[in-house]
């Protein structure tokens, strides 16, 4: 995507063709800072601290993290160690596990001295595939937005999204935002309700920043406003991302997504999930019972970081000292609440049969 006219993806190789550069998403929207990652420990820290975040992007970052490790020491022991370090960073997005295991399978049969260059090429291939998958999701989702516009006779389409499933969460385009960017570029009149997405405010800080960069009309709302907006006909469709969609169509996404899906169902608002196939876990069935839900630090709830009037970035405490806080980072929306999955192979029902038909190659041999 473009930032002030300059083309950007969220991850790229350093001039030394070894280190990697990423955008530090913990500094947005107030500072645009680039971080250089030079070893697997730094890659793991960037994922754990959410300098890079979003299911597809943490997968790509982990793949490059393995490449950095192989450049330093391509032994079997270091390959196992690097994969373990990266896999331990965040448990929920299946893209992370998929990218690490895909990279391990690609490297383990090679002589150690060949692993470095192959690891970088494999990480780049995962990154390139992500761009293509997200753009395809954009095309398939565009048709949904155009159909909504046709129903509204040219009035603007109001789309609600939760968290950031934008180009910042992927290598480019985003998943939930790809249809929005495609429709905006095509001149389809639209407006986006941006859930702030407490506690880390990925919506208010990241999605709003992205949409501002691209001139997409949008309004930030508190997470609890979505049901009210839907009750009053102010939402034409919901498009969110996913961190792990199960073989039966259950969708794990940022905490609060489930509540949006319930409100959408109650108000007859179409609820779509942008789901690139690396985020589909064909080894899992019951998302509510089986998905590992990351619990993050209570400090993400009790404290907030922002820009003071004098421009300083500061963190302040929001709650009484001594109060406990519980911070589950994701929830699971049962398939019955999902209108459709926008995949790179088309818009399909959130069901086992539809997923198996769309991805026979994956459903046949769950990895
Ligand atoms: C394109 S998938 C993005 C997905 O990942 C986000 O989680 P986090 O910000 O914690 O990495 C959120 O669930 C998004 O929908």
TrEMBL record:
Gene3D superfamilies noted in UniProt: translation initiation factor eif-2b, domain 1, Translation initiation factor eif-2b, domain 2
Stated name of the protein: Methylthioribose-1-phosphate isomerase
Family: Belongs to the EIF-2B alpha/beta/delta subunits family. MtnA subfamily.
Site (Transition state stabilizer): 163
InterPro entries: IF-2B-related, IF-M1Pi, IF_2B-like_C, Initiation_fac_2B_a/b/d, M1Pi_N, NagB/RpiA_transferase-like
Gene for this chain: mtnA
Annotated EC: 5.3.1.23
Keywords, comma-separated and alphabetical: Amino-acid biosynthesis, Isomerase, Methionine biosynthesis
UniProt-annotated catalytic positions: 243 (proton donor)
Reaction it catalyzes: 5-(methylsulfanyl)-alpha-D-ribose 1-phosphate = 5-(methylsulfanyl)-D-ribulose 1-phosphate
Originating species: Methylocapsa polymorpha
């Amino acid at each position: 995507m473009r930032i002030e006219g300059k083309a950007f993806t969220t991850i790229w190789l350093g001039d030394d063709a070894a280190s990697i550069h990423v955008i530090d998403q913990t500094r947005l929207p107030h500072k645009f800072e680039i971080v250089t990652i030079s070893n697997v420990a730094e890659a793991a820290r960037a994922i754990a601290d959410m300098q890079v975040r979003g299911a597809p992007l943490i997968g790509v970052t982990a793949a490059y993290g393995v490449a950095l490790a192989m450049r330093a020491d391509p032994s079997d022991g270091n390959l196992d160690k690097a994969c373990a370090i990266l896999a331990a960073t965040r448990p929920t997005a299946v893209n992370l596990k998929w990218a690490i295991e895909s990279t391990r399978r690609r490297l383990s049969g090679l002589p150690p001295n060949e692993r470095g260059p192959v690891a970088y090429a494999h990480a780049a291939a995962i990154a390139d595939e992500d761009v293509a998958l997200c753009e395809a999701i954009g095309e398939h989702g565009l048709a949904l937005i155009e159909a909504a516009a046709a129903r509204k006779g040219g009035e603007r389409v109001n789309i609600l999204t939760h968290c950031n499933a934008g180009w910042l969460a992927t290598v480019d385009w985003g998943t939930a935002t790809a249809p929005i960017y495609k429709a905006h570029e095509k001149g389809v009149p639209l407006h986006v309700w941006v859930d702030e997405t407490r506690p880390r405010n990925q919506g208010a800080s990241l999605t709003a920043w992205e949409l501002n960069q691209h001139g997409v009309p949008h309004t930030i709302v508190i997470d609890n406003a979505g049901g009210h907006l839907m009750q009053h006909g102010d939402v034409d469709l919901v498009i969110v991302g996913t961190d792990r969609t199960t073989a039966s169509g259950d969708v794990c996404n940022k905490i609060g997504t489930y509540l949006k899906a319930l409100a959408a169902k109650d108000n007859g608002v179409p609820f779509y999930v942008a789901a690139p196939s690396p985020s589909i876990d064909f080894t899992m069935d019951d998302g509510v019972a089986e998905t590992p839900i990351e619990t993050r630090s209570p400090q993400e709830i009790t404290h907030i970081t922002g820009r003071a009037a004098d421009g300083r970035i500061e963190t302040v405490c929001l709650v009484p000292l001594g109060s406990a806080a519980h911070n589950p980072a994701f929830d699971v929306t049962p398939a019955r609440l999902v209108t459709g999955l926008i995949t790179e192979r088309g818009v399909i029902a959130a069901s086992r049969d539809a997923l198996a038909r769309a991805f026979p190659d994956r459903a046949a041999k769950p990895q």
